[in-house]
Amino acid sequence: MLTTGAxxxxxxxxxxxxxxxxxxxxxxxxxxxxxxxxxxxxxxxxRARVPELVPIRYGRMVASPFAFFRGSARVMAADLAxxxxxxxxxxxCGDAHLANFGLFASPERRLVFDANDFDETxxxxxxxxxxxxxxxxxxxxxxxxxxxxxxxxVVAAAATRYRTAMARFAGMxxxxxxxxxxxxxxxxxxxxxxxxxxxxRRLERGLERARSRDHxxxxxRLTTVAGGRLRIRPQPPLVVPLEDLLPPEQTGDLTGAxxxxxxGYAETLQSDxxxxxxxxxxxxxxxKVVGVGSVGTRCWVLLLVGxxxxxxxxxxxxxxxPSVHAEFLRSNxxxxxxxxxxxxxxxxxxSSDLFLGWRRTQGIDGVHRxxxxxxxxxxxxxxxxxxxxxxxxxxxxELCAWCLARAHAxxxxxxxxxxxxxxxxxxxxxxxxxxxxYADTAERDHRALADAVAAERITATTGV
Length: 464
Hints:
This protein is α+β, with helices and mostly antiparallel strands and 464 residues long. The protein has two domains: 9-211 and 386-454, no CATH class; 215-375, no CATH class. It is built from 19 helices and twelve strands. A six-stranded antiparallel β-sheet has the order 7-8-9-10-12-11, with helices on both faces. The chain has a two-stranded antiparallel sheet with strand order 1-4. Strand 5 (223-226) and strand 6 (229-232) form a beta hairpin. Helix 4 packs across helix 19 (426-454) and helix 6 (126-143) runs antiparallel to helix 7 (148-170). The protein is globular, with a radius of gyration of 22 Å. The two termini are 40 Å apart. The mean pLDDT is 91.
């Protein structure tokens, strides 16, 4: 359960400080592993997924230790569960690595920056998210050729920013915490001055690219006219239209199920957004491969049109499996995993997609599965991590850490968390040590996967 705070601020702060007696700040430096073999965990996870897509997942993960880390949230969830637990809960992202942050459009058409992947979200110890972010920073730094000192500076900057941001949120009114955000104005005023001229220009180009990546651009890239009708363009094996995926006698059943899903999912939207969705008609659908860790889950792209074919809407319908943290935290109060994802996203994000909703539907195999729905693209942009220099990664790390602190401050007891973290750099130093040790662990796990692929014990399709 979320601990949103009870009592006056002094009592809540004292409650957080008291936690240090059972979980000292220095304890967070330790990495523990008591669970099953990491590859066994991944293979277990893959058994519930689309069999022909699982090799693509392994192919993407074997590319590098950082890629392995991105796809192995299940492995780290078991490792975190074996470590210290402050009991100071917030709504956690559950997979807060640095590639799961980016730019997207708010319903008010502001370009905002925030976490953007909530498949693993659950109420949980706040430190789980901070540790996953820290480890991802160390691994990304290694991949970019940073020295140990440079990596430590990046991780320390993220931990410090999380701690100081939480202290600031602890002193703010509840509504002020809720309204805090990062948008283009924030980036230009707070981030750009810390960059050199070349990187300021790169930031501006990135903002403009994000604005150009809207639903119309996605429409142009993903659709074509064939046989006199609008359809999704085949790009196998990553995008496969339904009619190319199943025999004719089965396509009708699945199309009907997905039409029912769209109609039913509308019930989870605000009333005004249901009216807007009701103006669109489903015309085509395709299976799509997404991400790294998500590869193999059932994901569909739905093409809808409104006034005419120049008025498109592309929706992504993604399977929602139980969170990788579920067996350890047991804090999911939702019967529908799609609802869990949507509720967590709405709680953590400063602003969520206009068409974000959920639904359960039955597949042609007779199995009921949970899904969540959102727009495919809407002013979406991400930072190029490959090739990022130490100074730029440090600034980016601080931005991600601030967003995590704001999300946790909204959903948890920010005053107790701030009281626990305190004003000394003890937590920061512990996170630096943790990140370095866990990066070593991830590199060993990656080598184990590479060896299993080389020995043909695990099948991996690379370059896809």
